[in-house]
Design brief:
The complex is a heterodimer of chains A (123) and B (107). By secondary structure, chain A is mostly beta strands. Helix content of chain A is 0%, strand content 54%. In chain A, the strands form 2 sheets. In chain A, strands 2, 4, 5, 6, 9, 10 and 11 form a 7-stranded mixed sheet that branches. A 4-stranded antiparallel sheet of chain A has the order 1-3-8-7, with no helix packed on it. In chain B, strands 2, 4, 5, 6, 9, 10 and 11 form a 7-stranded mixed sheet that branches. Chain B has a 4-stranded antiparallel sheet with strand order 1-3-8-7, with no helix packed on it. Classes of the chains: A mainly beta (123), B mainly beta (107). At the A-B interface, strand 5 and strand 10 of A face strand 4, strand 5 and strand 10 of B.
Chain lengths: 123, 107
């Protein structure tokens, strides 16, 4: 079964770091771009960033709102995607989802999503 | 960044109604647009990609159209399980951007 399971969320103080993980199973992890998407309480969806596939050298892209404060990485041996967040702000409070990107080079779509992990930034 | 403007932000409809949601891009995005459904407390679900291609397993009452800057998601006959929030997403360029969402509620 194709599955994504996030972990690592919790309560963190403003300015602190946090690392989220996303464990992938049921597909060849290296073949896919993998993204992080977040949703603040009661708000809409916001794209956070991407780790491209092995074919694209695992390069990354980030939203302006997080660029310089977050790093997306992956560990192929563990089939895991990570979101390292530093200098956290209260506005980073959100449910964080990882998502698999279905792509043929001409389009991208998030076909598989994890269940999400909640990050609360508060003193 | 490309701005995606969805309308309406909410609507009330009855079972069996035809529902249309629109999404407008601030610049042309070809057909690089997807539609997602989200129910409370759940992850979003892909409905449509490349503006009009139905994702596998999605009921045929859902359809999408449009190209360039204007896009539409149509539910031909609203079912009880369709009450949810719907989002468009442009994947034309980075940063990817979502519309603000349309909440479909029971009339």
């Amino acid at each position: 079964e194709v599955q994504l399971v996030e972990s690592g969320g919790g309560l963190v103080q403003p300015g602190g770091p946090l690392r989220l993980s996303c464990a992938a199973s049921g597909f060849t992890f290296s073949d896919y771009h993998m993204d992080w998407v977040r949703q603040a309480p009661g708000k809409g969806l916001e794209w956070v960033g991407r780790s491209k596939s092995k074919a694209r050298s695992y390069t990354t892209e980030y939203a302006a709102s997080v660029k310089g404060r977050v790093t997306i990485s992956r560990d192929g041996s563990r089939n895991s995607l990570y979101l390292q967040m530093n200098s956290l702000k209260t506005e980073d409070t959100a449910v964080y989802y990882c998502a698999r990107v279905m792509s043929d080079g001409h389009f991208d779509a998030f076909d598989i999503w994890g269940q999400g992990t909640m990050v609360t930034v508060s003193s | 960044a490309i701005q995606m403007t969805q309308s309406p932000s909410s609507l009330s409809a009855s079972v069996g109604d035809r529902v249309t949601i629109t999404c407008r891009a601030s610049q042309g995005i070809r057909n690089d647009l997807g539609w997602y459904q989200q129910k409370p407390g759940k992850a979003p679900k892909l409905l449509i990609y490349t503006a009009s291609t139905l994702q596998s397993g999605v009921p045929s009452r859902f359809s999408g159209s449009g190209s360039g800057t204007d896009f539409t998601l149509t539910i031909s006959s609203l079912q009880p399980e369709d009450f949810a929030t719907y989002y468009c997403l442009q994947d034309y360029n980075y940063p990817l951007t979502f519309g603000g969402g349309t909440k479909v509620e029971i009339k």
